[in-house]
Structures are given as structure tokens and as C-alpha cells.
Design goal:
Two copies of one chain form a homodimer. By secondary structure, the first copy, chain A, is α/β, with parallel strands linked by helices. Chain A is built from 16 helices and ten strands. Chain A folds into two domains: about 190 residues, Rossmann fold, CATH 3.40.50.720; about 140 residues, N-(1-d-carboxylethyl)-l-norvaline Dehydrogenase, domain 2. At the A-B interface, helix 10 and helix 11 of A face helix 10 and helix 11 of B.
Chain lengths: ~375, ~375
């Protein structure tokens, strides 16, 4: 796609057409399938992209005996994780990871985060050197030495550039084309961010690029801790006023924590879809909020483990483990006093404090 | 309270004690009564304030034949506007406006905003020259030449300094001492802002000062326009995702509009209680949201006037008239293209666009 190549086309009309960009989606769950649908609608429309969108599927055998990939390719629908939604005929499911990424110029990572290390290991040396990546994976881990960012994992392991896409994105609502927004976080190359925007943006899914990978990615993780706090307020029936105050304090701590870890993080990022909008969605609906509400209603007498097992069919709550990880960073760095809400959420989760402490402690002015 | 006066006390023990600050609350509705309760709890506690808090009451005769002021003073309760809540024995209701403000060092204005011009006219020459004022009045008017700020009206008419207090403050929730926050906006004198904080702050009501009167005051008005938009989304049953996106776009337009009118307005103000938290409360509950929801459910076929009459017992919606006023400013200044959400809310309210336009139009990237 170098300009001189295009020029040559115009003058001679005989050279190869400029190479079209090939996109592969690594992952095919609920959100991955919606992402493939969004992308496929754009690659069909835009001449700079190859029509076909390859989607790597972790192969399963359906109760009918059919392979999941065969079912997806036959029905043009992810019958297991996004039933009832046509993905676009140009989405091709592929059970072979290495084959799926072969020749791709843009890789979209959207798997459960615990699989990413293994996937990266398998991809070393299998991707183009100049491939561009984006991570849609929310819920990176926050280790004591700081957060283990998924975008950094991908960048480091594969030696490639990696953006992130986060936001108030409930997959099933976007699947039926309800209006939504998202944020692309990029590091340096704005033209790459714009290419991602081109690939994801539709009339009902508005994508905005911001130069702040860390801020965008941390929002996606830290909001789950605030959602636990919001759930406690719901369970205690304290009303919208208190809930709004707790969400605001949570947003302040998300911002302060991100900036203390990465001074490059921008305040304005928290006004984007990945910030305030995702926080609102997660604190209104979402399973972290829901189980925390049940926890508070039971006055903390039934553990999160027990409630999770009962309410979530084996899924684990991101917010509870993130709260623990954040707490470890805070105590390790001597920052506990700066983050009364984050600290209190963890102490309530482990039973050191009662659920009512969420307002008694969060109100403390952080010692900054 | 000059330091030398205090000093004198220590040495001679005979001089007059330093003069205590006297506080009067002008207004006694639902929020005014709660404000009096908050303040009274602090004047009892803090030696620098005179215990007694005077509250001007627009006199009414109760069905029992008793005067409202007598009932308040006898029961220590505003039986009409905040029944069931003790105000504190040091709150004294006074039906005489001039008497109520006589000798006051701090005036708290908390009346319906349409009464303020008349009240100010009556107070000219009746207040101390160095009296400090604060306005708790939400819903100033936005006139074509710019907003008519209540704090400016008070300052200009009485020739005194005027702060504002805004936030996610549902009076009945604060009355029963549920956790809440508020923001004091001040112009220059930080020590005055801190005195207001001292007067309002309690263990369950956390007040933060910010040097941005205009930003704080505009938040309190503009959020009602966003609440109308959020109500449309609810009525169209578009889900939490879309609602969060619309709230976020609304917050962005609140910020942009305020900054275009007053370049001194600070981004950080919108992270305070008066900003994001009040927006959340208003878009979750509140009558603007509720009537707008009904409007959208009826596909715009029943007018706001009709729905207001049916649902609000004669109260008028702030949001609808503010949307109209904002629209006039936008078209007068040629700013309509910068504010697709604000403009669309008004056009839906007057029937030019259908309620579904709220997402089709808000998604337009503002041309900035």
C-alpha cells in the first residue's frame, strides 16, 4: 500500500492491486462473536480490507455431535455463544490457531484473560513481524509490582504493537445493534488507532481513539471493584444518592490509582466510554454488582464463594479478586490511606468489615 | 474574631468574647429544611457559630388553622415540607424576611428560583455589608446572552459575595442521614469556602470546595437536560449500555457548554459531586427522567405539558424549559453542530423529531 505502488497502478494499470489488510479475531465467546460481526460489516464495506474475517474458535463438540466451528460456518452464527445473530457470511471460524493468524495484518484478541499467556506462547514466530494487535480483554491482573497489562503481555511476548478497546459494551446489546460507544487506547501511532476505529466503528457503535493505553485498560479492570461497592449500597437499600456518591468516589480512586501507577495516564480518559460510561453500565447491571448486593443483604454471613457458586454457575467474580490484588498493591506501597473505598471493598469481601462500612469508610477524605 | 481580640481575652479575661457568626436560612421547603437541620447540627457543635439558626418561612396556614411557623417552632419539625424529621431545637422559624436576615453574617438561599429576584429586591439595604451568601438553588435560567446565574443575581443585587452548593442531594435521603456528598463552588476567598464547608459538613454529608462557581452552578442546571435524554432511552427500552453512552455524551456536552460560556470552568469540577454524581442520581431517579420516559413510551404523541399535568400535580419540568433555553443559546451563537445531544433533546420535546432520534442524532461527532 505504499503510495508509489498505488501510483504505478494508475499509470500502468497492470501491477498487482495494493495488498488488502487481513483481520483475524482470536477468540469466539459472546463478545468475540460480536466483535467479529462488527468487523465483518466493515471489511465488506471498505476496499482497503480483505473481506474475509477469520475467527479462531476453541473447538468444542456440540450436544448434537457437530463441531462448533462447523456449526458456525454452516449457520453463519455462533450457536453456542451468540445464538440468533448472523455474524456476516465473511466470518470464517477456524479451530487451528496458527492457521487462523497466518497472514493476518491485524489481530483482535478477545479471549478470557487467563488463556492469553498460553496463546501468546503458541503464537511466537507465527505472526507477521509488522502485525498490529488490539486487546478487547477486560480484567487484567493487578500484581504487587503493578498491573500485568494484557496489552503489554501481547506486546512483549510477540514483539508487536498492541492497542486496547474498552467501553460500556454489553455484548448482547451491541449484537442487536443498540447504540453504544467504545474507546481505543493507543500508545504512539495515531494512524494505527484510526485504522482500528475504521474497523470497529459502525452507525450504532461509535469508537473514539485516545492516546492512553494504560488509562483505558485500567478502567476496564478497576470499575469492577467499584461495582462491588455499588452492589453493597444496593443491598443495604441506601438509595440513589448514596450510590451515586460511592460511584463518584470509586471513579476518583480509579483515576488516582491509575495515575499513581502510570503518570502518563490522562484525566480526560475517565470521561470517555471506557471510564464513566462503562462504570455506569457496570454499576447498574452486571454480575459483580448483583452478587455484592446479595452479599450485603445477607449481612456478609454468606461468603462470596458461596454466593458465586449459587448465582453464577461456576463463573468467578472479577471484582472480588481485583479488589484483593489492588489491596496488595496499596499495602505494599503504603497507599492504603489514599484509597479508602478500594481498601474497604476488599476488607468487606474478606469479612474483616461489615457491608455497612462501605459508606462509613469511603467518606474518609483520602490523605493526599 | 480578630486575633488581637482573642489575645486580649486571654490576658485580661474581661473583654467581650469574640462575636459568633449568625446564620440565616432563606427558604424552608424540603431541601431548605434539610439544610437547616445540617447547619443546626454544626452551629450547636462549633463554638465559632451562634447556636440559633434562623429560617425564613413563607407563611402558610395549615389545614388545622395553625400557622406553619408556629407549627415548626412548636414541633421542631417542618410538618408540611419535611414531616417526621426533627430539625434541631436551635432552628427558629421566622415569617418576617427582614427580621430573619437581620444581624446575620451568613445567608443560605434555598427557595424556588423564580422567587429570588423578588427576595433580593426586598433585601437591598437590609443585610450586613460584609454578609456572606451561598445559593443552594438549582435551575437558574439560561438566557440567550448566557446563563442568568442565581449566585450572580444575589451578588449583583445585594453587592455581596456569593458561593454555591450543589451535588447529588436528594433531600429526603439526606434527612434520614444517608451518606451523601456535595460541592461548594467559590470565586476567590478559599477561607470563606472553608467556613461553608464547616457549616454544612457532617459525618454523612461530605462537602468539598472547588474554585469554580460557574462550573458548579451550571452542572446543577444542565444535568436536567441530560436526564430528559436518559428518560427517552428508558422509554425506548434501549438498555443500560445505551443509557450509559447517552449520559456520557451528556456529561461531555455539559462540560463543553460550560467551558465555552465561561473559559474559567475547570474539567475537574465535572468529577465532583455536582458533576458526575448528581448526573447519575438525576438520570436514575428524578422527575425529568420519569416524564421523559412516559413521553417516549407514548412515542411523543402526548405532549410534555399533558404528561406533566398528569404526573406532577402542577409542578413544571426544569429539563424541558432548560433544553429550550440552551437551544436558544446554541442557535443564537451558531453552536448547534457542537451539541447534538442538547439540540436533539429540545427538538424531541417540541415534536420536531421522534424520541428515537435521541440515539440517531447524539451519536454524531460534534464538529469541534
Amino acid at each position: 500500500m505504499a503510495p508509489e505502488l498505488q501510483e504505478e497502478n494508475y499509470t500502468t494499470g497492470s501491477a498487482e492491486p495494493p495488498q488488502k489488510t487481513r483481520v483475524t479475531v482470536v477468540g469466539s465467546g459472546n463478545w468475540g462473536s460480536v466483535a467479529a460481526k462488527l468487523i465483518a460489516s466493515n471489511t465488506r464495506r471498505l476496499s482497503s480490507f480483505h473481506d474475509e474475517v477469520r475467527m479462531w474458535v476453541f473447538e468444542e463438540t456440540l450436544p448434537s455431535g457437530e463441531k462448533l466451528t462447523d456449526a458456525i460456518n454452516r449457520n453463519n452464527e455462533n450457536v453456542k455463544y451468540l445464538p440468533g445473530i448472523k455474524l456476516g457470511k465473511n466470518v470464517v471460524a477456524d479451530p487451528d490457531l496458527e492457521n487462523a493468524v497466518n497472514g493476518a495484518n491485524m489481530l483482535v484478541f478477545v479471549t478470557p484473560h487467563q488463556f492469553m499467556e498460553g496463546i501468546c506462547r503458541r503464537l511466537v514466530g507465527k505472526v507477521k513481524a509488522d502485525v498490529e494487535a488490539i486487546s478487547l480483554i477486560k480484567g487484567m491482573e493487578v500484581k504487587m509490582e503493578g498491573p500485568c497489562m494484557i496489552s503489554t503481555l501481547i506486546s512483549d511476548q510477540l514483539g508487536i504493537n498492541c492497542c486496547v478497546l474498552m467501553g460500556a459494551n454489553i455484548a448482547n446489546e451491541i449484537a442487536v445493534e443498540k447504540f453504544s460507544e467504545a474507546t481505543v487506547g493507543y500508545r504512539e501511532k495515531k494512524e494505527i488507532a484510526q485504522k482500528w476505529v475504521q474497523l470497529f466503528n459502525t452507525s450504532y457503535f461509535i469508537v473514539t481513539p485516545v492516546q492512553d493505553v494504560e488509562g483505558v485498560e485500567l478502567c476496564g479492570t478497576l470499575k469492577n471493584v467499584v461495582a462491588i461497592a455499588a452492589g453493597f449500597v444496593d443491598g443495604l437499600e441506601m438509595g440513589n444518592n448514596t450510590k451515586a456518591a460511592i460511584m463518584r468516589i470509586g471513579l476518583r480512586e480509579m483515576k488516582a490509582f491509575s495515575k499513581m501507577l502510570f503518570p502518563s495516564v490522562k484525566d480526560t480518559t475517565f470521561f470517555e466510554s471506557c471510564g464513566v460510561a462503562d462504570l455506569i453500565t457496570t454499576c447498574l447491571g452486571g454480575r459483580n454488582r448483583k452478587v455484592a448486593e446479595a452479599f450485603a443483604r445477607n449481612e456478609g454471613k454468606r461468603s462470596f464463594d458461596e454466593l458465586e457458586a449459587e448465582m453464577l454457575q461456576g463463573q468467578k467474580l472479577q471484582g472480588v479478586s481485583t479488589a484483593k490484588e489492588v489491596y496488595e498493591v496499596l499495602s505494599h506501597r503504603g497507599w492504603l490511606d489514599f484509597f479508602p473505598l478500594f481498601a474497604t471493598v476488599h476488607e468487606i469481601c474478606i469479612g474483616t468489615l461489615p457491608p455497612t462500612a462501605i459508606v462509613e469508610h469511603s467518606e474518609r477524605t483520602p490523605k493526599m
